[in-house]
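Milestone 3.1: sequence recovery, worked example.
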């Protein structure tokens, strides 16, 4: 397995956090894997978070059950947002968050360029491979991130 793939949950994960979830894996190495649920909107918008109340309304996604105290983002504008980690093609994870917020607020970038997440999904080494092997996830090279 590698970064840049998509995972779709199977019926084995019904009635769990991951029921009908589609994930995008942003990191995969000898320590484990990290990714985000990309198809579950968070019930509040970006500007409804106290720290960002002066921002424009912008969708947030429920990225996963780990570290729900922080925001994460995936984008396809490395030309505008510096410091991100390239995942595949033109898609990066992270980078200059203040600049990303500025570009969202002045509408230079839109939902077609960036996704904001509360929390993430994480696995220890070989844990994700075991879940795929047991049939909890189907793996795909293709998916719709933006």
């Amino acid at each position: 397995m590698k970064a840049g793939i998509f995972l779709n949950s199977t019926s084995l994960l019904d009635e769990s956090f991951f029921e009908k979830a589609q994930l995008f894996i942003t990191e995969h190495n000898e320590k484990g894997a990290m990714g985000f649920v990309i198809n579950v909107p968070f019930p509040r918008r970006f500007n409804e978070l106290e720290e960002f109340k002066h921002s424009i309304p912008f969708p947030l996604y429920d990225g996963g059950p780990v570290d729900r105290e922080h925001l994460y983002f995936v984008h396809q504008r490395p030309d505008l947002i510096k410091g991100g980690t390239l995942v595949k093609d033109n898609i990066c994870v992270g980078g200059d968050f203040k600049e990303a917020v500025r570009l969202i607020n002045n509408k230079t970038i839109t939902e077609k360029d960036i996704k904001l997440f509360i929390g993430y999904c994480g696995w220890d080494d070989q844990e994700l491979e075991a879940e795929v092997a047991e049939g909890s996830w189907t793996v795909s090279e293709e998916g719709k991130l933006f």
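The chain has one domain: 6-138. The first helix runs from residue 97 to 105.
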